[in-house]
């Protein structure tokens, strides 16, 4: 089998993992070496599906001893199999990297023979890159659940980022669809990586030359729509992972049926892309806007509103905090205004030190006035002639796509019920905590 | 005090600083500040501003002192942008800066500041995109790339690629501005280059390109096909120089997309800094 066939098979087998970022470390190449990394991450191209391609994302092999029901590589699925040798893959990575095709390597693998053996093959690939080529580019390695702790540690010293995929947002779904995996086998390496990172931080303070362990942190991925788990559950789980496991990113992947199985959505079912999009928006609110999961969803409202994004939804349900005065409102509150993003807030805080801002100024600062105008005043005044009815606000908040969706459903007589905005009953976290506790 | 005079300078950053000097000395604000090859005809008298290293140095030294080091870096970058009439915008910005001091960098809602900030944002964005979209080819062990940026990004790309490939020899040719970044361990230079013809790719290079195109095709999840999203992240004007979009025989490169027109694309020299 030639390199082209292998590359095709092992790319195909890896592409359903959505993480492809190269962020989190800054590094220049060592003399005599090749490769650097930038903390903000760099996209090298965008696939026709619109996703950023930053890393060469392949599997070491798609031969797998396990039989996860949702996976193209499962043992019982008829599909061509291939396997890179460590040398082959390291050379391919360098060939791509020199031409600036990629930022580095994202290496994952099916479970070949057993987890330890698989892990060894991955380590050998990374060793060639780091030691022989003195490669300083980005490496993301998937931890293979069930592999020995010492191997995970070795992998973590060679890689910049590691991930263990949660895959399914509840234990029941997991035991049903991934019979060879358990929540413990997933959370164990995750905890080990977390502890390794913490330990490394204190070691680095004490001994300057300690090798860095997973400097870009760890991430995970969950499938959306393969199982009946709600957004509420998923978001709470994500929040728990950020807080308890110190994850850098949680990725959500709209499930696209790739195998026929009575337990899963039928082949040809469209992936729930809007839902995935809403989860990413909410995830953003958790990480950068100071929201908590309980503010965005609750047991009575377990799924996101398809028409309005989570931030607008929150604002509409909390009209009592608006309008706020742009020239005085604190940062935390400005972040909650629809139409003002993190950059916008930063610019407002800077600009208002030297001038009192009006609506024209806000436009220059990159604020989306069409949305923000309902929620702010400038020098105590609203935009003249602004209609503050619920309907006019709602229309202004919807993008044209959402507006189409809304009016179509309105014709069907469904929307009013969907649009009953909710207020807050107390959140219930036990479920997630139970799931998270090892 | 706004005059109807036009300043004609030599096209260099130092030359522009001399225009700032002139504007203060004469207590006037020029109607336009034009490089030598700008053929615009305006109904105003022109004055040639000769570059004077001493004046330029005085202005250059006063910027970090009076307006702050951040502003000094900012105007240098502003000079690399493709903002039409950037020279006069920079002059106005500096005049405002001398009056306001370092706080001028925070006056984001001020029109003079805003225009320049937007232009520099675009420059920074284009630089960032090209760190990813730029494609090297290998010829006899050396690397070469061609780009077609709107802004003069080479001085900003230089530190990135030099830190990335310290042991390589490489060349990045900017087709639009007629300049090239050349690097060999451990020296960098940006030189004017009117025409760079790259040799035919050899067997190894052709294989690398073919592997990359295969990877690019395979990595899409067809069920999520979304060309509009791709275009919004990766504007089509960059595609011309990217290996994955060179669909000609054996991945031959595409011809230049834009014809260089001398006037707007002249090369601003503040290299070596
Ligand atoms: S372990 Fe499960 S998810 Fe991973 S490759 Fe094997 S079958 Fe697929």
From TrEMBL, chain A:
The keyword S-adenosyl-L-methionine applies. Signal peptide: none annotated. Keywords: Iron, Iron-sulfur, Metal-binding, S-adenosyl-L-methionine. The keyword Manganese does not apply. This is DNA modification/repair radical SAM protein. One of its GO terms (molecular function) is catalytic activity. It comes from the Bacteria.
From TrEMBL, chain B:
InterPro entries: DNA_repair_put (IPR023875), DUF4130 (IPR025404). Residues 85-244 form the DUF4130 domain. Coiled coil: none annotated. Residues 255-267 have a biased composition (Polar residues). Pfam families: DUF4130 (PF13566). Residues 250-273 are annotated as: Disordered. It comes from Caproicibacter fermentans. This is DUF4130 domain-containing protein.
